[in-house]
Specification:
Elements: E1 4-5, E2 11-17, E3 22-25, H1 34-51, E4 54-59, E5 65-70, H2 80-93, H3 95-108, H4 115-120
Parallel strand pairs: 1-5
Antiparallel strand pairs: 2-3, 2-4, 4-5
Helix pairs in contact: 1-2
Length: about 120
């Protein structure tokens, strides 16, 4: 499901950078409820404030939500161990949000019938 990936491929949902102190939400996802958009922004910005680097949330070709973390090569302040721990914490604490985003992406962007996925919940 959601995991740390070696490179960004697919459709970017959102990203935050500790270097530029910026947050980006793909305009294709402006249809998400404002509360979800705000929760994503908080999630990404807090991650980069705590750990540093750049966090990108993106969907692969199958609709899986992935997290991609990068840091500049000479960034001595980037906390690599903290990054792994923070990703695991996000996956646990925000599991429902992340799974809902996958269902949304599959329904809206991949035009899949997600009724079976909704019945499971």
């Amino acid at each position: 499901m959601f995991s740390e990936t070696p490179e960004v491929q697919g459709v970017i949902l959102c990203a935050a950078s500790a270097y530029e102190e910026k947050y980006y939400l793909n305009p294709d996802f402006s249809g998400l409820p404002t509360s979800i958009q705000e929760e994503l922004q908080i999630l990404c910005v807090l991650y980069t404030a705590d750990v540093g680097g750049i966090l990108t949330l993106h969907f692969d070709d199958y609709g899986n939500l992935l997290m991609h973390v990068t840091a500049r090569e000479n960034d001595l302040l980037f906390d690599e161990i903290g990054s792994v721990l923070k990703i695991k914490q996000i996956q646990m604490d925000k599991r429902e949000l992340l799974e809902s985003l996958e269902v949304y992406y599959r329904a809206v962007f991949l035009h899949e019938d997600v009724s079976e996925l909704l019945d499971e919940e």
